[in-house]
Specification:
The protein is an alpha/beta fold and 167 residues long. The protein has 5 helices and 13 strands. The chain has one domain.
Length: 167
């Protein structure tokens, strides 16, 4: 339970998943007393989230499992989809409209470093990035191909015994 209190990245994911659930319920059942209550809860949680974590995440995003969002916040997320296993660091904007109505799709196991801006069907890189590639600089260039990020992913895994947290 302590991990939830100490991890703003988990707060962001929880509020986004609650908002996504609300949208699905409203689409399925319409405006019922339950969906109105859920809408009010989502609105309050989103306002608190923006103030506390300096992050705004669209409710309509389909986020896969095992996504890591930085605990440092400053995230503006609005893509169509974020694939499972994706790592998103702080100060990242994805899918915030900049004259382009096409929302990006983030694949699985993508590592998005700090200060990245991705919008439309292209990013500020002005090119598609091949799988397992590292791109850096301004103007952006591919600095490494066939990058194996297994060591990085292992450093993000936690060794939490969930049964010891249960009362």
């Amino acid at each position: 339970m302590l991990i939830w209190v100490l991890s703003p990245g988990l707060w962001i994911l929880a509020v986004q998943r609650l908002s996504h659930y609300f949208l699905a319920r409203r689409q399925q059942y319409g405006w019922t007393p339950g969906t109105v209550t859920l809408r009010a809860l989502c609105a309050l949680a989103l306002r608190l989230l923006v103030v506390i974590t300096k992050s705004d995440v669209a409710a309509g995003i389909c986020i896969g499992g095992g996504v890591y969002l930085s605990d440092r916040g400053h995230l503006m997320l609005g893509p169509q989809h974020i694939g499972s296993g994706t790592i998103i660091h702080d100060r990242v904007s994805i899918g915030v409209r900049a004259g382009n109505d096409v929302l990006p799709v983030i694949g699985e196991d993508v590592w998005i470093g700090p200060d990245c801006v991705i919008y439309g069907d292209i990013s500020v890189l002005s090119m598609s990035v091949p799988a397992r590639a590292i791109v850096a600089g301004n103007p952006a260039i591919i600095v490494r191909k066939n990058f194996d990020n297994r060591v990085l992913r292992r450093s993000l895994t936690s060794d939490i015994d969930l049964e010891s947290l249960m009362p």
